[in-house]
C-alpha cells in the first residue's frame, strides 16, 4: 500500500511538472509573438501622439464609450466615482491624463488647446471609438470645444461640460464680464513662488469647505492636492495661460449635438455667470443643471447627483 501511494504521488508530481513547463512555454510563445492579454484586462494603457507624447489612460467596462477629460492640476484619477458608477450600468469608461499630468509624458511644449484637441483626437482614433459621450471638467471642457471645431462630431454622440471654464475667462473689450488678467498673473506668480503651498491653500475653497451641507474630509483634500502635485510645474503654469486666455466662443457656438452643462452656483474657481451659463446660452438646445450651493469640486461633493445626471443624459 505504501509503495502504491508513493507511485501515485510521483505520477501526480510528474504531471504537475509537465503542466508547469507547458504553461511556461505558452507564455513565452505569447511574448515572442507580441500577443497581448485579453482587452478586458487592459485597464491601464498608453497611447502615443503624433509628437511622441505618451498619454496614460484607464479603460474600464464595455458598452457605449464615455471619455472623461480632467481639469487643470488633476488627472484621470479624479473620475473614479463616476467611472465606478457608470461601468456598473454597462458603459465603457475611459479617462486619460492630459499631457504633463499624472502618468503621461511631461514635455516642455504643447500646452495649448490645439494640441490638447489633437491629443483627444489621437485617443479616439487609436481606440477606434464611436458614438462617444465626452465629459469635460473645468478647463477640460476647452479640449472638447476645440476638438469638435477641429475634428467635427463624426465620432461624438453627446457632450457634457462639468464646472466648465468655457467660453472665455479673460476680461477684454468684447468680454467685459471676464476676470482681469492680474488674477491669473498673481496665480502664476504664486505657483512659481511655492507651488505646494498654493495648491494646498486652494483645496478648501475648491471643495467648498464652509458651504451648506458640504462635508469633505482632510484626507480627500490631501488626495486632491496630491493629484495636482503630479502635474509638471511647466504644465501647471502654461495651462493657466491656456485656459485663461483662449477664447472658445466660436468653438462653442458651432456645437450642434446634445449637450449638458452641470455647474455649481457657489463655484468660486469658475463663476457660473461667466462660464456655465454663458456656455449654455451659446449652444442651441443645450441643457443646464445648476447645483445649488455647489463648489467647483462638485465631482466629489455632489458625486451621487452628478452620477445620476450623467447616467440619465447618456442613456437618454
From TrEMBL:
UniProtKB keywords: Hydrolase
UniProt entry tagged with the keyword Hydrolase: yes
Stretches assigned to the AB hydrolase-1 domain: 64-302
A Pfam family hit: Abhydrolase_1
Signal sequence range: none
Keyword Hydrolase assigned: yes
GO MF annotation: an example: hydrolase activity
Family membership: Belongs to the AB hydrolase superfamily. Bacterial non-heme haloperoxidase / perhydrolase family.
Name of the protein: Alpha/beta hydrolase
